[in-house]
Specification:
Rossmann fold; 4-stranded parallel sheet; about 350 residues; about 45% helix; alpha/beta; binds iron/sulfur cluster; 16 helices; 15 strands; binds 1,3-dihydroxyacetonephosphate; 5-stranded parallel sheet; single chain
Length: about 350
């Protein structure tokens, strides 16, 4: 197990104190002229109900760039709040209700290690390598790609971003999610023999032959889904449809009917025929929400264990309420501030993506 692999646990629905929910509603109303709450699809119901905008990483970063409210409360994880800070204006403040709400995948790419690999790759070929980072990465990694003519992608636009990179270079270094990188490269028709996972340093010959270099990171939640889960669901429910997130492993994605971002999953289930049966391979809060929203369809988790992302779940109604109280009193305890120097190039890389 990777040292960063943490933050996955079976799904247990949590009850909220109605008094807390009432207080959030009234404080939100009081602050409404200056406040926007953004919420990722993996947040629990009693948090997402207060979000002015809910969405996937792409939608939320677009909204963070557009919203001109003074206070942006991000119900999601650290890298998302960092993106909001990078994209927002100087006079806007971004808050994360629990500063420990990180992403284990983002932690797997450390800037010092990336610089070492970058040097090794670029000194091993004259071909132009374009660094691409998945948005699930630290601000330092975004700075690195911005400074080296690279770009950021989300699970919604990874294919389009691969095209962008291949128009400007002939090789890609993809950080930090090996599986989203692998699934995207395969869907782009790149042969697996030209995709190199950086679990070791490639030799000169390999550097020359490879088109895509994949950092060795992964999502601790999505990696748990296995090919066996897909086979079991197909055996239990002949004719079942299977949709999974692009962070799942390549064998799971290949054996499924569709893959994509959280918004893609929601769109597919929304448009599915009444009475159809679906197994969904993603974080359990979203699967349960879909199940409630579409009682006319059968919606099952791909794995019975129903994994939840523990860091996403650190955002509770109580902590949201505390953050709103802090805003009212002018406290900055939960404010996210990215170093201005890091911000500059990270913003260039984010704007390149949003411009597409
Ligand atoms: P999307 O919502 O962009 O598909 O991302 C999923 C995710 O893992 C966020 O942490
Ligand atoms: Fe990170 Fe995976 Fe949790 Fe998303 S679901 S925040 S990628 S650990």
């Amino acid at each position: 197990m990777n040292k960063f692999e943490k933050g996955v646990s079976p799904f247990i629905p949590k009850e909220s104190d109605p008094a807390i929910l009432e207080q959030i509603a009234s404080l939100k109303d009081e602050l409404k002229d200056d406040l926007v709450i953004l919420g990722h699809h993996y947040q629990r119901d009693d948090v997402i109900r207060f979000a002015d905008v809910s969405g996937d990483s792409l939608i939320l970063s677009q909204k963070a760039a557009e919203m001109k409210k003074k206070h942006i409360v991000f119900c999601g994880v650290y890298f998302m709040a960092e993106c909001a800070d990078i994209l927002s204006d100087e006079d806007q403040k971004v808050y994360l209700p629990d500063m420990r709400a990180g992403c284990s995948m983002a932690d797997m790419a450390n800037i010092n290690d990336v610089e070492v690999i970058w040097k090794h790759l670029t000194s091993g070929t004259n071909d132009k390598i374009i660094p691409v980072t998945y948005i699930n990465s630290s601000a330092e990694i975004k700075y690195f790609v911005g400074k080296n003519d690279g770009i950021i992608c989300t699970s919604s636009n990874a294919s389009r971003i691969f095209d962008w990179a291949m128009e400007r270079g002939s090789k890609i270094l993809f950080l930090p999610d090996q599986f989203l990188g692998m699934n995207t490269a395969i869907s782009q028709g790149i042969p697996e023999s030209e995709i190199f996972t950086l679990d070791r340093l490639p030799l000169a010959q390999k550097i020359k032959k490879s088109k895509v270099f994949l950092w060795n990171g992964y999502c601790s939640v999505h990696k748990r889904f296995t090919l066996n889960d897909v086979i079991s669901r197909r055996n239990e429910y002949p004719g079942i449809n299977i949709v999974v997130h692009g962070e799942c492993t390549a064998d799971v994605v290949k054996a499924s009917d569709a893959f994509g971002s959280t918004s893609t999953i929601i769109k597919i289930i929304t448009e599915a025929k009444k009475g159809s049966v679906w197994a969904v391979g993603t974080e359990q809060h979203l699967v349960q929400r879909l199940k409630k929203r579409f009682p006319d369809k059968t919606i099952l988790p791909l794995s019975e264990s129903g994994f939840q992302c523990v860091t996403m779940s650190l955002i509770t109604p109580e902590k949201l309420l505390n953050t709103l109280k802090e805003i009212k009193t002018g406290s900055t305890e939960h404010e996210i501030r990215v170093d201005p120097e890091i911000k500059h190039y990270a913003k260039i890389a984010l704007i390149r993506m949003l411009a597409l």
